[in-house]
Amino acid sequence: MLSPRQEEPEFTVLLVCTGNICRSALAERLGRAYLDEVLGPDAGAIRLVSAGTRAVVGSAMHPDTALVLTGLGGDAGDFTARQLADRMVMDADLVLTMTRQHRRDVLELAPRALSRTFTLREAAGLLEHVDQDVPREEFAERACALVGALAAARSRRRSSSDDDVPDPIGQPVEAHAEAGELIAPALIEVLSRLAALRAEGAAVGP
User: Fold this and answer.
1) Which residues contact 188 (CB under 8 A, 6 or more apart)?
2) In 32, 42, 85, 187, which residue has its Cα 20 to 30 A from 16's Cα atom?
3) Enclosing H/E stretch for 205
4) What pTM did the predictor assign?
């Protein structure tokens, strides 16, 4: 049985793109489906939210992206787009953007978030340079330590255009599928590391 503290989200991941109806929307809902599957009732320990730098506020997920998401095992549900605000960035423990420009946009809003802001594919690549063992007692502490290790590893990896997920808006469904193919493995790589930290804590918890 979860304690009252465990019932509350302990670690927040913010996903950012432009309109918040394609890339970051897919990432949020795909990530939620993945965490629900691997963590079950403990999935709420990791909170996923998304927003757009120029969001189509209040809009549903783009239908082509929703189709791709369904094929990947997620569900668009009642998703609605939100505009990125500095408070969202400050409240997040990890910010994952779809492109390097989005990363710059986030840091213009909240420069102090540099150590916890990465492109999604950058973060996945940096995991190769981060030790699996993150010695902390609480999940939130272990997860934040992992983010700190990602920031410390930046000098060991060069960021390039390969870190960007191109915008599929206004293009055929194939472009949405290609975006999904870039997002899914990187997202699962990052979330699987976080989920492992959560599962480890739950195993030794009360």
Assistant:
1) 34
2) 42
3) none
4) 0.92
Write the pLDDT tens digit of every residue in 175-204: 999 999 999 999 999 999 999 998 875 554
Q: Which residue has the tokens 């795909």?
A: 30
How far is Cα 95 from Cα 16, in angstroms, rounded to an integer?
A: 8
Can you tell me whether residue 81 is helix, strand or coil?
Answer: coil
- For 89-128, how does the pLDDT look when each residue is reduced to its tens digit (9 = 90+)? 999 999 999 999 999 999 999 999 999 999 999 999 999 9
* Coil, helix or strand at residue 189: helix
Distance of alpha carbon 100 from alpha carbon 84, whole angstroms: 16
Residue recorded with tokens 């599962």: 199
Token representation of residue 96: 């994952």
How far apart, in whole angstroms, are the C-alpha atoms of residue 86 and residue 111?
A: 10
Collapse the DSSP code of 12 into the 3-class scheme (helix H, G, I; strand E, B; otherwise coil) and give the result. strand
